[in-house]
Amino acid sequence: DKVVFTWSPHAAEFSSKYGIQFYFLPFAIDPLIWHKESSDHEWGKKDCDVYLQWDTNEEKYEMRKDIQDKLLSDGFREAHPDIKIFHPSVPLSYEKYASILPKCHMIVTTVGMPGRYDLVGTRFFEVMSQGSSLLLTNAVDRNSKAYNELRIRNGLNVVMFSSLVDLIEKIYFYKERPEAAAKIMEEAQKWSADHT
């Protein structure tokens, strides 16, 4: 007999649809890498405001190329010199990636293949579990089964943006209000304890 393990909360649906037994297997993070205590977790001691590193394939990820082009442009940097962006030019090892995220106030991501698949990306689990950076992600459909079943909520455990302008406004809002960011990061870390 064939079986399939999936991180998708739609495992039961898939079993019915495809006639193969699907089992839900949640994402996992290595607590030795993601739950380290350090001074990097203190808001005032962080090296950067925004972390950007991702695949910009526009067929798979909407908004990423536009976000990256805007936030890394000379015009943006000149207009917003108080926003420090970390954008590695080469892929980082998993350990290096995990060590850099806590040094940034906010991590920006977008969901892959919106409209085609109802997904939650791996970066959600990584960032939310470490509890020291705020996760900003593009807004999803309110009826998203994956987000609803996993209890991912805008303003509770993540911050969602609807446009490039909204993203920039939220970067400034949370940069200037670390106590508001801290509440969301704390809820995110509690959430991750139940989902990783």
Keywords:
196 residues, alpha/beta, 5-stranded parallel β-sheet, two-stranded parallel sheet, 14% strand, globular
Task: Describe what this molecule looks like in 3D.
With 196 residues, this protein is an alpha/beta fold. The protein has nine helices and seven strands, in the order βαβαβααβαβαβαβαα. Helix content is 40%, strand content 14%. The chain has a five-stranded parallel β-sheet with strand order 4-3-5-6-7, sandwiched between helices.
- The number of distinct β-strands equals 7
- On the 0 to 100 scale, the average pLDDT is 87
Order of helices and strands: EHEHEHHEHEHEHEHH
End-to-end C-alpha gap: 28 Å
| Structural shape | globular
What Rg, in angstroms, do the CA atoms define? 17 Å
* Low-pLDDT stretches: none
**Fraction in helix:** 25-40%
Report the sheet-strand fraction: 5-15%
Largest sheet: 5 strands, parallel
Reconstruct the topology from this structure.
Layout: E1 3-6, H1 11-18, E2 21-24, H2 31-34, E3 48-51, H3 64-71, H4 74-79, E4 85-86, H5 94-100, E5 104-109, H6 122-130, E6 134-138, H7 145-150, E7 159-161, H8 164-175, H9 178-195
Parallel strand pairs: 1-2, 3-4, 3-5, 5-6, 6-7
Helix pairs in contact: 6-9
